[in-house]
Amino acid sequence: MGWNGVMSTDIFAKRRTDGLLFFAALAALTIGSIIITEYDVVKGFTSIFKAFAWGASNFYPDAQSLANLPDIARELWQTVLMSVAATTVAAVFAVLLALAGSRTTRVSGFFSIVARGLASIFRNVPLVAWAMILMLAFGQSLITGYLALFFGSLGFLTRAFIETMDEASLHAVEALQATGAGYAPIVLQAVLPSSLPQMISWVLFMIDTNIRDATLVGLLTGTGIGFTFDLYYKTFHFHQASLVVILIVVTIIGVEMMSNYIRRIII
Amino acid sequence: MGLPETSKTLGRATHEAFASAADLPAKPLAKEAVVIRVLFLVLTVTTIYALMTLDYESVDMGEALAGTLANLKTIFLHPGGTHLTFGKALYEVVITLGLAFLTTLLGGVMALFLGLLSAQNLAPKALTNVIKAFVAFIRAVPTILWVLIFAVAAGLGSAAAVIGMTFHTISYLTKAYAESFEELDRSVIEALRASGASWWQIVFQAVIPSSFTYLLSWTFLRFEINFANAVAMGAAAGAAGIGFDLYMASSFYFDLHGVGLITYIILAFAMSLETMATTMKGRIKDKH
Question: Which chain A residue shows the shortest CA-CA distance from B209?
Fold first, then answer.
């Protein structure tokens, strides 16, 4: 009984010290972050309530702003189209890169490293950097946003597809290899079919993400729905700006619901 | 990222079930094939239509492509620039990391409570539904718009950026945390309840300790995302940090060498964060 008691106090004491160390480290990092970012804690918290109070009295669509609905809807439609196109084209290239990069399907170790490296660069150069760099030559055009989303998606989807192919298809590939099947039949009959549902799921996720990110890219490059919001926002047309937000929310929730529906069926 | 991640593990399970049952009834498979075909058709048509209707007139494609290639060459082969020293740039990245950390921490704390209240084994169904709808709404508004909305009250700067990004973090982590909590077996909770433990005791003695590794991994994954977000908010919403320098270098000074330096530094940090996050993700998968 006594022995047991000693043991458990030790465990609890250790747990307590670990916990204290964890929270001390968190506190130190927090204070450091607050100092270096000059984040005003009080202002931050009060601004939440201020923003909601302000929103309730200013940030809602009024009757007059509804007149802008067709314009906003058209911009949003174009942005959605652009996001979908960027995703699907990126997906096609990503499949090729992933075939070169995946452990199960790669032709040579060298190409695999190249494919993975390219994907890593495309994905880790921030979207804003792509947008700003492309903006210099392509200017204020939807093509700038399209290409920025394309590069980011290419990097992300390649990695996702590589992971999918690595995981989903080993058994089937081994079975086909044992029967002496060549590269093309293995890829077409085993690897792609077995990873297809998961790949579609990633593409749907990417479309969703890209519509969201298109707003950001649009703000930076002066195109699409992001620019529409920015214009209304900077000229204090908050009723119209709120209408933009509502339409974006409806679109994204709609796309998300559709994606979930498709996922439920195919996976 | 939380969503496909979970659907992935689920998907694998169903996959194996499919593979083992060779004499599967034709109906679900047929529906699956139809949906995939319709989706392919819709995506192809949409993409072709989008690419055809994109406004090419304002851009000379050949010239713009050549220009971009030349720019990329300057950026990646001759990084440097006069407006930002290497040391200053590193300091700015640390600011960005600080923004990401604050955002993740604030969001994580809020999400911990919301996660507990939206886990199906811990809270009533009605409450979990309300919270899930609430966080779905938060997620549907792009981060930049949250930041700009808060900027009206707080002014452009780190306060608005942190609060705006925190909103998204809350929504992401609430979903991830709730799923982690739901992993805990119902019988454990029932046993504790039967022995007279209160809700708080169950939460702090059983639920949180047993899912702690998950929580930490998900939080770090979000930290990685928040780093990218913090860069973006620096460029688009005037928050401090390396993103703002990136914006200034490319849009104000037109200093491609500077853009190169900044891009390389962000790339280095993003890649190391990604490597760490991948390790963390491995831990989540191993536990499944």
Answer: A15
Per-residue pLDDT reduced to its tens digit, A109-153: 899 999 999 999 999 998 999 998 898 888 888 899 999 999 999
For residues A233 and B121, give the distance between their C-alpha atoms in angstroms, rounded to a whole number. Answer: 43
Contact map slice: A 100-129 vs B, CB within 8 A: 120-121, 123-129
* pLDDT tens column, B218-235: 999 999 999 999 999 998
**Is the CB of A69 inside 8 Å of chain B's CB atoms?**
no
Q: Is the ipTM of this complex over 0.90?
A: no
| B72 with A133: Cβ contact below 8 A | yes
Report all structural domains of chain A as residue ranges with CATH numbers, in order of start: 2-58 (no CATH), 64-266 (1.10.3720.10)
Kindly provide the b/e burial profile for residues B227-261, where b requires at least 16 CB atoms within 10 angstroms of the residue's own CB. Answer: bbbbbbbbbbbbbbbbbbbbbbbbeebebbbbbbb
Closest Cα in chain B to A265: B32
CA distance B231 to chain A (A): 8
Q: What is the mean pLDDT of residues A212-229?
A: 91
Domains plus CATH for chain B? 102-288 (1.10.3720.10)
Q: Do B153 and A50 touch (CB under 8 A)?
A: yes
Q: Quick one: which of B251, B264, B260, B263 has its CA closest to B81?
A: B260
